[in-house]
Amino acid sequence: MSKFNRVRISGAPGPVKSLFRPTGRTHEGAPGFARDTKSELFLLAVSNMVGEQTFYERADDRDGRFRDLVREVAVDDVDWLTRMVGWLRDSAGMRSASVVAAAEGVAARLAADASGGNRALIRAALRRADEPGELLAYWRSRYGRTLPQPVKRGVADGARALYTERSLIKYDTGTVRFADVLELTHPRAADGRQGDLFRHAIDRRHGRGDDVPASLTMLRARAALLALPPRERRDLLTRPDAADILAAAGMTWESLAGWLGGPLTAAFWERIVPSMGYFALLRNLRNFDKAGVSDELAAGIAARLADPANVARSRVLPMRFLAAHRATGSLRWAWPLEQALNASLANVPALPGRTLILVDRSGSMFGRLSARSDLTSADAAAVFGTALALRAEHADLVQFGTHHEPIPFRRGDSVLTIVQRFANLGGTETAAAVRAHYRGHDRVVIVTDEQVWGTVRGREPTRSVPDRVPVYTWNLVGYRHGHGPSGTPTRHTFAGLSDAAFAMIPLIESARTTTWPF
């Protein structure tokens, strides 16, 4: 073991802070470390799929805890909450949690007669054209039909920025439609064309939208396509300019499928693929194979998927590429998906020195990330742990549960291949895994839900690591009590399903930051 030739780490306190002594219990009965309000809210927010339960926490209890934390922070520090909501929506990709946080935060501030910042808090949660309606629907479900001025103005700001012809085609659904948002909040149109769009959205909501204004060229093109007799529609696909016609009409693959009313053939995909977005391509890889698309088209799709700039713009989370890889089972897509996954992990740093990475594979980690996904917290842990190991100068990658074992890998191995080597290891003996594998490493990273077993062996996991050596806990679920202290120069906790927090490790180690990632 080296005594002198070691990586020098200065260290700065991390933003997520806990008490230094346990005051509660984890869900498995081990001593639990409570965190301050902002820290608990942050860890919960980046993992909270609203309305869905986790392994240890009922959906109602989890949502109630989230609302209570938001309301407390909103009154104390609305600027911090607004920054977190914007980051939560943009970088963490948590749509529902950001909408709930904005609405509950403003409700709490209004109840406390706190003015200033409320309109901006609402606006921070609205990044996609269906979200103004989502926020109003949530507000109605919680606080009735009366809309306070800050809610009206924040939603109106969002509608003005987000409502376009294309968004009207794609997102004008649900209980609260575009027209409802417009009639309730009265946004001022940015120009004459958007004014025509607003009026048309209201007209068609009330059954009088047959005449599309001349300025709305995409909607007029779409109306012309919808007017074609069914027998003529499939013939359109044989035209050389079909892709351009469909794009000009804002046809998505879903709307085109319904319009044609038939099988999704290779010709169908040939015409619609050029106008498909990144996530739509990723979702349909198996359908492309099933239809027998040409190698030329597949090569074009693969190039778009693997392009780092496309990956960055899409903000698709790394686990989505793992899901696509599992769904296709096709060698045609394996390499572009690997490239895309690597691009999505661009913020994962190349850590110097020796790093011990422990990945929790206990039973509670195998709860699904959401009801609409087969991916689990265990999948996320394996992806991030593997990526960190592959980038590090030297890393030991270990999976742990009731027992623990190293995961073999070599530099240059595929993330998707290494992930298949992980297993379900039962319980959560974190401390035993740390003791067994820590050998003078420069840092320790634990990717986990922190719910360690309440046994004699299940003591505070970081005690086996000298105080001068940093330990980074990557929390993937956001339960109230953590497995150890955080907020000192060498004990840190991060959270979420994106790679952004990993980028803070070298900053903290050089004592350049003590701030949140927003």
TrEMBL record:
Reply yes or no: does the keyword Metal-binding apply. yes
Highest taxon, organism lineage: Bacteria
Query: Where can this protein be found?
Result: Cytoplasm
Print the keywords alphabetically.
Cytoplasm, Metal-binding, Ribonucleoprotein, RNA-binding
SUPFAM superfamilies, per the entry:
TROVE domain-like (SSF140864), vWA-like (SSF53300)
Question: Has UniProt tagged this entry with the keyword Plastid?
Answer: no
Its family remark reads: Belongs to the Ro 60 kDa family.
The record's listing under Gene3D superfamilies reads: von Willebrand factor, type A domain
The protein's name? TROVE domain-containing protein
- Alphabetical list of InterPro entries matching this protein: TROVE2, TROVE_dom, TROVE_dom_sf, vWFA_dom_sf
